[in-house]
Batch of 2 targets.
Target 1
Amino acid sequence: MKTENLIRALAADQAGPKTPMTLALALCLLPGIILSILVYAIALGPRPHLMAMLPEPRILFKLIFPWVLLACALPTAQRLVRPGADLRACLIMFGVLALILAAAVVTKLLVVPEAHWHASLMGHYAAACVFFVPVLSFGPLVGALIVLKRGAPTNPTLAGAGAGLLAAAMGAAIYATHCPDDSPLFFATWYGLATIIVVMIGAIAGRRFLRW
Amino acid sequence: MRNERESEWESLLRASERRTKLRSAGARSAAPDADAEDIVQEILLAVHLKRRTWIETAPVAPWVFTIARHKVIDFLRRRGRRIHLPLEDFSESLAAETEEPSLIGADIDRHLDSLSAVQRKVVRSIAVAGASIAETAADLSMSPGAVRVALHRGLAALAAKFSRQG
């Protein structure tokens, strides 16, 4: 077949998915989110007195930060699968987020006497955090990868990592309402570790499944 | 049965073809026995099948070039793997065998053979005979919807076949 003929066939083909990527992402993430919420409802549940403690800054920070991360990860994931998209704005956003997190950690270190740093860092349920955040991220990660497969990532590994970050933000947002450890030191370390795990799983999966 | 959208898309594909030819020529000099037309066709298929990743308000050139670059690199990587096989270690008979996969240099007819019978008939009818969707549907006694689906799946299968070769 000559290129001329191929072009004719391509021009005639107007089929294929027409749902915009944003809507598709929302629809495809939904089953994963529902799965995560079910796991949360069965195995975890919200911590006691959550509503009463809400005004405390450290709790607000822990609850809101994952949502902000999610708000940055969503447009980033969409850009990662769009050839020629400009990623600089995303990099700046994540830089600002890292600075905010670092500022919270430094504040905590200044406020808490050095003797309590270790207790503050280790909290009570570090292992549960590192286990459950990835578990709660699993469904959203699968959903995100399925949608991103429709895109055209010139770097499948990076796009998979973006999907991992998106999923980890969701897992962290859900788990934060259960987690009884509130220190920013704990948050940055163990949620951070959990996020890195999910991002790495996403990157490996992306490398495998997001090729085109 | 050509509508405005089809013609618009066709002119964009033609522009892409012209502008990616240069790049493919570059790829050919790096992999001399490769057929530049093969790369162009692979790029056009990718541009077409991934067209939803282009935002219509954004400039089209960076988008097309990024896809073209991705496909050329991908192509060279696949070729590279084959080129760097230590062929000289093998006997002459083996060396002769490795010449056979210059399939790469052929046109996509051989890929058409890998499609299902219906997809192949539909793609042939529209691409080679230049029939419209409606004419093809009448010809093959299918519904126009089924022809559209077969055409789309056939093209997607063709693209998948392309990126697996080598």
Target 2
Amino acid sequence: MELWIGAVNLGMLYAFMAIGTFITYKLYSFPDITIDGTFTTGAAVASILIVNGWNPFLVLPVAFLVGSMAGFITGFIHTRFKIEGLLAGILVMTGLYSVNLHIMGKSNIPLLNDITFVSVIASVNPGLNPELWNCVFLILVILVIWMAISMFLNTDFGLTMRATGNNPIMVAAQGVSVSRMKIFGIALANGLVGISGALVAQYQGFADVGMGVGSIIFSLAAVIIGEAVLRHRSMFIKVLGVILGSIIFRLAVALSLHLGMDPNDLKLITAFFVLATLIASGAFGKRSAGLSQYLQHLFHKYRKSFMALCIVLFILFAGFLLYKSTVFNKKPGKMVKIGLIMANNSDIVTKTRDGLISELDRLGYRNGKNCIILEKNAEGDIPVNQTIINHYINEQVDVFVPISTASTQAALNKVKDKPIVFATVANPFVIGAGTSPIDHPANVTGVYGPSPIRDLLAVFRKMYPGKVTIGTIYNPAYPNTVSNLKDLKKALNDDKDIVLEEVTISGSNDVYQAALSLAAKRITAFVLINDITVFNSFESVVRISKNSRIPIFTCDAERLKDGALIAYGFEYFVSGMQAAHLINRIIKGENPAQIPFEKYKILTYGVNFDVAEELKIIIPSSVQSEANATMKKGVLTKPPFVLPEDKQDLTPKKVAFFQSGSNSMLDNCADGFKERIMSESKRLSFTLKIDNYNALGDYMTGQTIAKTIADKNYDYVVTFSTVALQMVANTNKKIPHVFCAVTDPIKAGVAKTDVDHLPHLTGLATPQPVEATIKLMRALFPKAVKIGMVWNTGEINSEICTEKARAACKNYGFKLSERAITSLDDIDDAINSLTGSGMDIFYISGDVMISQIIPKLALTMQKKGIPFFTNTDSDVNAGSFVSLGADYFEVGERGAMILEGLLYGANPRDIPIETFVPFSLGVNMKLARQYKVAVPDTLVARAKYVIR
Amino acid sequence: MIKVENLTQTFNTGTIDQVEALKSISLEIKEHEFVTVIGTNGSGKSTLLNVIAGNILPDGGTILIDGNDVTKKMDYQRAKYISRVFQNPYSGTAPGMTIAENLLMAWFRGKHRYPVSSLNRALKNKFREQIATLDMQLEDRLENLMGSLSGGQRQAVTLLMAVLQTPKVLLLDEHTAALDPKTAAQVLLLTKKFAGAHNLTVLMVTHSMQHALAIGTRIIMMHNGRIVENIGGDDKKQLTIEDLFAKFENIRKLEKLTPELIKTLRNQYI
């Protein structure tokens, strides 16, 4: 049902634009192409204002004004300089593209977390389906607009406008300036288009610089359909027809999607439905004319009361919404104050804090909006914890949240009458927080867990049986370290074959010395208990580990990527999440005395194969098969945070795959995903029903697909590309969603950090390896000075890539000479001007548009003898010199692994967004000889594509 | 009421198609005068009308209407003084709008139009009375589209629109030329009727000498961008078709005397 209502809603939003086109095209016989630009301008203005905190309704008049300014310019050029109307429109539309980019500052503005008209009306939803509720609101708005526009066109002024279009000679003879009338009409029309853009941007949750493309086609279709469906010369019926035409067009798109046609046929089918509508209305012409007559009659009869009713309803509703939208942020009553106390900046503490904050956010706690979250860090200075606590007491903090043992200890000492929720404490019982998880001070609860030191030793034993010596380093100043050491010694009591060498330190500076002294004692391995001092200078231990080939075993999962061979420990991010739930329960009224301490729920058992290779250690297969995390070739692979209570469900799962368009990158990514998920689902005995959607690069189709997906009760959604992600993120707030082939999910608006993302989605960020490419350029061409680069202002990924290139060029001593283009027509000029100014290396940003013509560009560069670098590995086959990019097939495979995690019951909100760039290189050795460049053999060996 | 002085107008200046349409024309038309303009094709009579209406801004000279200098004013700015009926019966009305709406356009000739609805029952009744004077049974068709009327009917309505707000000057540009003889006579009759009823100042261009004789107080004959005859008062009343033919014949003969020939003749005889 949502699909249909959604289509009607879109139809009503686009109806503003169609009415604009009705004014220019039907009243003035002036097909105004400006609207392709104005639509985006309206969206751009609205978005940038909303992001800056404007009221989502007040942006509409601004969008109207800016839109009508664009229309004014078209009208002025047309009448003053006698430029053909079509050309005047094209000129202004072309210019608006740049203006829109300037307004937006980038090519895409996400609004997912901002207050839009949709979120305001959702806040007063009496319990209807949200889409239906939107519909109710929009019907009211469209009724008023219908009335207002039709009534206006029947006034003396409106009649003069119509007469101007109908017979300019006559109105001039009646004393009317035809030019002024035309300019006014075109400005009015574009103002309406601007409003349409502003509404659609809010509705779909983002503004994109390309969203206006094709507007003119759509709105002409809407006008013509409307004219065919309702035939009467009354302006009321005509404008109503336009609105219906807009809705019918959207419904046709929805219908062709609903029928589940081959995505490639989507546009054909839509065209067919529209044609069928036109033919049908022709065949039933008389009846349709009769209906129009009847409508007109009815309308004429009850016109006044109907108008009055509409206006009264609208004013009431609008007034209420305006009130609602201004008080939206303010919540009456005192806001709960949550005070975080962090002992230091170590990874463990930071991860806990991140997990806690993001989970609080998911539970609905918004800092400054409905709660106050205070954060203070003692920066490793233990007495400062106490100062922070005192400060919080003065601030009348309601819940104290100490993270780490030192902070918790300080809180326990001082706070007796307010709840304390601690997180990431190895052993709360050694610092006076009771004797067992259920026997603790009445105001205290929290999340804890001793390091799994026994398990770590068990792994160690699998690799090193027999008589061995191990070494450990610790700072006795911390009670939890001492407690951890006790646990280690207890575990060693059961295994007399292991000799423990321990070294104490008093600060980070001592760690290197301590590790060195242990190495001198010929220990087999470092077994490191959790100790913040040691971990803060973990690099020192790693250096000794490498030099002396002594592996590191640790209880901290975070150390796996830093150079530990085996890490067996808890995920502190989850500790924070668990604490957030406890805070929520207490704020909701539970008594902390009744809440048992919780243990950490997620454990990582990781093996670092890179370290193993370096230290020439063979990992036994039993360890390999038990481990759930690996570090291989610099890529960290971790299991999703599957909560233990989640169970595997074996019913068939419906999965929607949504590709925004087709190109080698997206196709590769989708192929990798599908191949992996199909083979894995067989192995894991999941039954998957997959539906493929492809918008073929069209915005409106994309939106409708996104609606369909949200409507069809899929179990999972997978999107390929940033646009697909944004569209689905906007329509779907509940179906678990995995995204791939996205450069930057944060810029796409679905996440604030890799862990703080929309709760129902997760996925992969795959930025292009720009810095690495430029580093490589420097390595291969030590004397090169200037990099020429062409990029497309219309694609956000292109923009991000160029920004990175600017920074990287500075770092590697290049001068970057860029040419931004908006269409392929400009590429030759751009390249000529670059070669004219003398570039040493040519580089492109990997956007979809320019990537289409790589063979052509490669040929040009080969002729000119300029090395050509690109960012898709296979480009060398098309003639580029060096191409360093991500292997999107692998990205797809990796994305499939995330979906597997979800199939196993993981919650997407627990899975951080992973930055995943599987480097993939292509190099052309023929060109290397021509350019007299020595490409190192190691590089060639790593390349996936080598042209010889 | 209308005073033009030294009006000149040249088309396609500087090309081989250069035409001097008006050669320093001066003319004064008094209030309530009904002047008909006749002339051969290309004599400049239509250009004169267009320059007065403001469709063409003249190269030189001045135009005063009711004492106001309108030489530099655009056509729509002159519309508060001038109303017009065109040769093409389809030019004066908007076919896609109703008769009442067309009349409303004329009701506001030369005035500001505001976004309010003036077309109420009282005004429609007034329009109905006015349109009844056309005697064309259009009284009950006010809500019909203008496009559904015949050319003659449309020209009659255009004429009515032109006098709906009494103009200072009424310009008629061969307004019966495109109509069949019967309708033309009907429209001419209406022209006479309205001119008399409102005591209008009229400048009527016509190609029909009969019409020129049958109507108006003064005849102006134009040739080659100049006024060659200006017959008013009793002379006009006594004028016959034969006289007019004779004058045309005269011009035709003169035509053959090229400036070079005149020069030679002068040299020989003087």
